[in-house]
Amino acid sequence: MSEKITIIPDPKTKFFYGYPSNVAVIGVRVGDKQNFMPAAWNVGLSYHPPLYGVSVGTERHTHKLLSEAESFTVNFIESKYVSKIRSLGRSTGSEMDKIKEFNISTSEAEKINAPMLGFAYCSFECVKKESILIGDHTLFVGEIVLIKVDKRAVGIYNTLHTGEISPLIYLGIDNYITLDKNSRTSLKELPPHYKDGKFR
Amino acid sequence: MSEKITIIPDPKTKFFYGYPSNVAVIGVRVGDKQNFMPAAWNVGLSYHPPLYGVSVGTERHTHKLLSEAESFTVNFIESKYVSKIRSLGRSTGSEMDKIKEFNISTSEAEKINAPMLGFAYCSFECVKKESILIGDHTLFVGEIVLIKVDKRAVGIYNTLHTGEISPLIYLGIDNYITLDKNSRTSLKELPPHYKDGKFR
Question: Is the ipTM of this complex over 0.90?
Fold first, then answer.
């Protein structure tokens, strides 16, 4: 048993032990303004209906846009785009047009009014259903009405094809990483009740 | 540009393109009953106060326990424990004592009344603040009041030490994977406004 340390959270310290988290880039449009923001705090919330959540700090420009918008996209990207994503994350749409500034390719969502990231391997088109203030962030809950997925990304049982796609994963404080594709393990064929090394 | 396919969600099909997700094992106790359940849908929600969310299907035994409990733990584990986690995920505490059945080591939380996973590299002790029904799941929101973290897991800036810890990551349908520790990149030292290859 290795040694453990105790941290009591305080307002001055941030900690990132709940990471790694895949990066979701939120796309949103209000009038003629559109913007992309990477969010590490993104999560599945429901199968039926299919709901997805993105948590955005109340002070963010994207928070303002999401509060006004009726829909948004959630875009997943490969690790090779790390510097573009970092640029999108460390700048604000209140001071510039990030899409022009960082030369971001976009495409148009089919079912909603929002931009999609051109180089995403997967995009969810989401209709905003709820905005829930939780602490210093708002959880925006979207119903996924359409999914665009790169053919290369389609794996067995609608899981990510990790042999083809190395997703961008966040560790906190501008530190990024990706998956070890050789470490994938499937335990699907084990009986439901499986005890280490023993079948019942 | 590679070819994209379109999926319109329907109630019969599950898709896992929002994954990978790190696995959080929820620990909860009500009276003399205690239980652990792995949750892929877990997420940071706020810095101040520090809030963390776990999304649990309304039909799960753990949902019943979390609805009654005032606190819970969130435990993060290394990939080498994959078969134990899969056992915890594919069984139900309504029919057995998972902790005995799968020989799970536990320890006691300090500030709350809940079990911690003995082999976790990090555990959050959470006081339940909100239970929000969202679709077919409830998002249980906990305030992190104490963190126990293995010394080996402590990395720079309170990020995960990925050279030491290979976290268990979920892809859906009993498929698991971990990180490629050699792929870690830090962009922390770049200027805030950085354009691919150019500084301003």
Answer: yes
